[in-house]
Design a protein that fits this description.
It is built from 2 helices and 6 strands. It is an alpha/beta fold. It has a single domain, classed as Aminopeptidase. A hairpin with a 2-residue loop joins strand 2 and strand 3. The longest helix has 18 residues. The protein binds zinc ion.
């Protein structure tokens, strides 16, 4: 893929905790994973941004706006939305091609 740019979306946040279990709150784990991914992509020299970097509440509209504001809907933009379900990790990938 030419000129990849990545938007990492840490699922949930703020008043929306997502799933809970075994003392884990989904919003915290998605943020940790998203920060790790962000740092790895930066190390690889790939342009990357995040929808949230703190424990904040995002409405669905706000989340989409942040995704679109990052790199628009150009070719090569990859959106990774992190969610953790009870049975294990599940990642959603959305490609704009
Ligand atoms: Zn979720």
């Amino acid at each position: 893929m030419n000129n990849p740019r990545i938007v990492i979306d840490a699922g949930h946040g703020g008043t929306d905790g997502g799933a809970t279990g075994n003392g884990i709150i989904e919003k915290n784990l998605t943020l940790d994973i998203s920060k790790y991914m962000y740092n790895r992509f930066r190390e690889l020299g790939i342009p990357v941004t995040m929808t949230r970097t703190t424990d904040e509440t995002l409405s669905p509209t706000e989340r989409v706006n942040r995704i679109m504001d990052a790199y628009g809907d150009e070719k090569g933009v990859i959106i990774i939305s992190n969610h953790i379900n009870a049975g294990g990790a599940e990642f959603s990938y959305h490609y704009i091609i």
